[in-house]
Amino acid sequence: MYSGICEGLEISLPDGEPRFAIKDTGRWPEASKDSATDCSASGKKPDLGIYPCYPQALKEIAIDLSEWPEKTCKSLGPRLDYVASPSWAWVDMPVEITHNLKTAPFSQKEKKDWLPNNDEARKSRGQLADYARQILAHQHRQFLFMILFIRDHARLMRWDRVGAIVSKPFNYVKSPDTLGRFVYQYANMTAAERGFDPTATLATAEEIETLRSYVESVTNISDYVKSCLNDVLRLHVHGWPIYKIELILGESELKECDTTERKNTRGGTKRRVGGPKTAEETKEDSRQYLLVGYALDYSRSLTGRGTKCFAAYDMTTHQAVLLKDTWRPVSANIRTEGEVYERIHSKGVRYIATVLHCGDVGGTQPQQTLTQEWIREDHPSILCQNHYRLVFAEIGRPLQTYEHSLQMTEVIYCALLAHQDAWTKAEVLHCDISDGNVLIYEAVDQDGNVTTSTGLLNDWDLAKYKEDMTEPHTQNSRSGTWQFMSALLLKFPKKPHEVSDDLESFVHLINWLSFQYHEQTMKDPGVLNEELRSIYDQFVTNAEGYDIGGLRKLDKNKAGESPVDLSIDSSHRTLLKSLAKLVAEHYAAIKPKASDSDTQMGSDSKVPRAHRCITITAKTSAPSQDVHPPVLVRQPVLNAHDAIIAQFENALAQDSWYPDKTHNLLMNTAVPYEPLFSSELWRIWTAAERRLYDTALLAESQLPPPQVSVRESAVVGHRSLWSSRNQLSIAVRTSFCWWSFFKISPN
User: Fold this and answer.
1) Which band of pLDDT confidence, cut at 50, 70 and 90, is reported for residue 62?
2) pTM (predicted TM-score)
3) DSSP-derived secondary structure letter, 298
4) String of b and e for 171-209 (b: at least 16 CB within 10 Å)?
5) d(CA 324, CA 302)
6) For 71-114, what is each residue's pLDDT tens digit?
7) Cα 471 from Cα 467, distance rounded (Å)
8) Phi, psi for 466 (deg, rounded to 5)
9) Are 368 and 386 in contact (CB under 8 A)?
10) For every residue of 155-185, which 3-state class applies, written as one string?
C-alpha cells in the first residue's frame, strides 16, 4: 500500500524539473542523530513525507542502502525506491496512513460520531498533533498541511498555533482527481502559500561562512554565548539548518517611543532604542538580517505561543543577540511584550534585558492564525494569534546551569529586585515566575573575561498592568507555570493574581532547584522523586474543567516547613527555613473569601567572598524572621517585597556558602523526574510553554462547493496515551475549508 500511495502522489506532482520528492519514512531512524535536536514525545514518525528537492535536504534524509542486507532490500520490493530517513527540519508535508478503523483518529462518518471517543483514537490524534508540533518547532512556519489516509478515504488537514482544520473524508479511490488536484496545486504554490514564513530564508554558503568567521574571531562574548553560536554551526547539518531572518525595522513597536539610549552591558557602547529614525537610518537600515539555527529553547506545545529562542548573529551590527519568536494572542486587553518592556525600561527597572526590536511579523499585515475563524462563537477565549518577534541585546544562561547555591541565590535575588522595581516603579506584575524566566547573565570585557554575573528576569508576555488587574479575564485560565504557582492560585483557579502569588513563586523556585541539585537528609532518589511530584505536580480536574492542585504545597506553607531538608548546615539551608517561616506568617494573616472556596475546582570549603557578584552586609533587624510583628491586625507579609528581600539579603551577607551543587539527583531514578502539567494551563501557557497539553475543540466542515457551514462541533478534553508515562496530552481544534487553499486547477 505504501508504494502504491507513493506512486500516486508522485504522479500528481507537476512535470518538469522536480521540486518535491515522495519519501517513505515511517520505519527508518531519524536523519538527525544529535540528542540536542530531539523533541519527540512519541518517538513515532510520519509514514510518508513530501520533501523539497534541496541538495541539503536530500543529502540529510538519504539512506545508504549498500549497508542493508540483500534480503531486507528484496523484501521491500517497490517500496525500496522511496525509503528515506525522516527529518522534522525538512519535511514539507507529512502523510499518515492507517488501516485499522478502530484505532483511526477519525471515523469515516461525515456527520455524527466522526470523532471516536476511545483511547486508541485519542492516541492517534495525539500522534498527528505531535507531527505538527515537531515541524513547527524545527521549521520557520506560519502553518502546515497534512494528508491522512484511512483505508480508501482521506482527509486533508491544516495546522497552526491555534489548532487544526480538518476536511470531511473523501474516497480517493473513487475520486482520485480530488487528491491529485490538491497535491498538484500544493506543489505549484509558493513557499508562503504552503505555510512557510517568507521572512525566513535558508542562509547561503557565504552567509554561513560569515557566521563562522565571526565565531572564530570574536573575543568580547562569554564562553556560553560562543558555545551557543558554535552549536548553530555544528547542528546546521543535524536537523537545524541556518536561516536568515529579515526584520523590517520600520515595523518595530519601538519606532514611536521617545528616543532613549541604553548602555550595552557587554561593552559600554550605546544603543539607541526607540525614537524616530533619521533619513539616513531609514534608507540604510530599513531591513536588518539575523542568522539563526538551533533553537536554545522551544515550546513542546502545538498550540499557544509556540515560543522559540535563538542565539543569533546580527549581520548589520556584527554582534550576537537573542531572537525570541512567538505567537501572541490578539486582544485589546492583552499587552504585547514589547509594550511591557518599554514601560518598565522607561521607569528604570533593573535586571531586565534590553530590547532592540519588537513587533508583529508583517507589520500592518501580520502573519496570523486561521483556525479560530472556524471555531464556534461560544468559545471567545480562543483568540487569533499574531506572529511576533523580539530581539534582545543580552543572551542569558539557563538558571539551572548555576555553579553553586550562592550563585543561584544571587541570581534569584536580582530577579526579585527586578520584580520589585517593576511593581513599585512601573506598576507591572510579572505573573509567571519560573525556572525558565530567570536567567544568568555574564557581562564580559573585550577579552571575554567575565566582569559581572547577575540575574535577569525575562519573559514579560503574561505581565499585567496594575490598572488592568480589575478587568475580567480575557482568557478563562490562570497565568503561570504549574510547579511555581502559589498554593492559593492552584486551589482557587478564579482567584485574581496578586503580588503575593509572584513572591511565593520565588520561594517555590528556590525550593524546586534545591530539591533537585543539592544533597538532602533523605538519600533515596526514588522517595525524593515521589515527594517532588506530590508537592509540585499533583492535580485533579473538577466538574467545571478546572485543574485543582497544590494541596501538599498548601500544607507545607501553613506549617512553615521547607519541603527541602539539606544535609549541609549552610546559609543556603538557613535561607530555605526562613523563607518557609515567612510564607507561613503570610498564610496565617490571610483568609480566603467564601466565594473562592465555593469555586474550588557536604563540603568544608566555602565559596570565597571574592567570588560573589553582590556584596551585602547583614541588617541589624529584618521584618518577619522568627517572631510576628507586635500588631493587633497583621498584614500578609508577601503583599509587599520588603520582607522576602530582607531574607535574601541576610542570607547573602553570611559566609556559610559552599560549592554544594551536585548532579540532578532525580534523573537516575527508574522514572526520571519530568514536570507534569495540567490540561487547563496549556490553553494560555507561559514563556515556559515546554509541555504538551491541551483541550480539544473539534468541528468538521463541508466539502465543496465553497459555501461552508460548520455542522457539528464537540468539546473534548482527553489525556493522550502516546506518552510513555501518560503525562502528556494533546488535542486538535478542527474545522476545514480546504478548497480555499487551492489555485485554479489545470485543464
Assistant:
1) very high
2) 0.84
3) E
4) ebeeeeebbbbbbbbbbbeeeeebbbbebbbebeeebbe
5) 17
6) 888 888 888 999 999 999 999 999 999 999 999 999 987 666 78
7) 8
8) -55, -40
9) yes
10) EEEEECCCCEEECCCEECCCCHHHHHHHHHH
* Peptide bond between residue 705 and the one before it cis (omega within 30 degrees of 0): yes
Q: How far apart are CA 703 and CA 706, in angstroms?
A: 7
Q: How far apart are CA 185 and CA 179, in angstroms?
A: 10
State how far the Cα of 115 lies from the Cα of 105, in Å rounded to an integer. 7
- Quick one: cell of 298? 522551544
Per-residue buried b or exposed e for 579-603, using 16+ beta carbons within 10 Å of the residue's own CB: bbbbbbbbbebeeeeeebeebebee
Q: What is the DSSP letter of 42?
A: S
Structure confidence by residue, pLDDT tens digits, 646-681:
999 999 999 999 999 999 988 765 555 566 543 333
With CA atoms as reference, report the closest residue to 581 among 555, 561, 567, 554: 561
If one counts every other C-beta atom within 10 angstroms of the C-beta of residue 743, the result is 12
Non-local (6+) Cβ contacts of 364 within 8 A are 251
Eight-state DSSP code of residue 141? B
The answer to whether the beta carbons of residues 459 and 687 sit under 8 Å apart is yes
Phi, psi for residue 487 in degrees, rounded to 5: -60, -35
What cell was used for 701?
Answer: 466542515
Measured CA to CA in angstroms, residue 323 lies from 30, 457, 651 at distances of: 27, 16, 35
Q: Give dist(CA 11, CA 13) in Å, integer.
A: 5
Q: How far apart are CA 121 and CA 98, in angstroms?
A: 11
Give the pairing of strands 144-150 and 295-298.
unpaired
Reported residue count of the chain is 747
Q: Which residue has the cell 480546504?
A: 738
- Take residue 615 and report the three cell numbers written for it: 556584596
Cβ neighbours for 135, distance < 8 A, ≥ 6 positions apart: 88, 91, 94, 141, 144
Cα-Cα-Cα-Cα dihedral sign, residues 618, 621, 627, 633: negative
Burial, 135: exposed, middle or buried (Cβ in 10 Å; 0-12, 13-18, 19+)? buried
Relative to beta strand 93-98, strand 144-150 is parallel
Q: Which residues of 414-436 are buried (b: 16+ CB within 10 A; e: fewer)?
A: bbbbbbbbbbeebbbbbbbbbbb
- Residues 6+ away with beta carbon under 8 Å from 633: none
Residues 545 and 718 sit within 8 Å (Cβ to Cβ)? no
Q: Is residue 289 within 8 Å of residue 245, measured between CB atoms? A: yes
Q: What is the pLDDT of residues 17-33, one digit of tens each?
A: 899 999 999 888 887 65
Task: State the residue for C-alpha cell 539539606.
Answer: 566
Give the span between the Cα atoms of 555 and 487, in whole angstroms. 9
Pairing of strands 397-398, 295-298: unpaired
Q: Which of 658, 647, 662, 659 minimizes the C-alpha distance to 574?
A: 647
Please tell me the distance from the alpha carbon of residue 319 to that of residue 236, in angstroms, as a whole number: 20
Judged against a pLDDT cut of 70, whether residue 690 lies above it is answered with no
Report CA Rg, the chain: 27
- Which residues share a beta bridge with 389? 325, 359
Between CA 34 and CA 38 the distance in angstroms is 7
Task: List CB contacts of 410: < 8 A, sequence separation 6 or more.
Answer: 453, 454, 455, 612, 613, 614, 652
Element holding 571 (H helix, E strand): helix 571-588
Q: Three cell numbers at 589?
A: 494573616
Question: 134 and 50 in contact (C-beta within 8 Å)?
Answer: no
- What DSSP letter does each residue of 214-240 carry, written as one string? HHHH--SS-HHHHHHHHHHHHGGGTT-
Kindly report the CA angle at 244 between 239 and 250, in degrees rounded to 5? 145
Q: Extract the C-alpha cell encoding 53.
A: 528537492
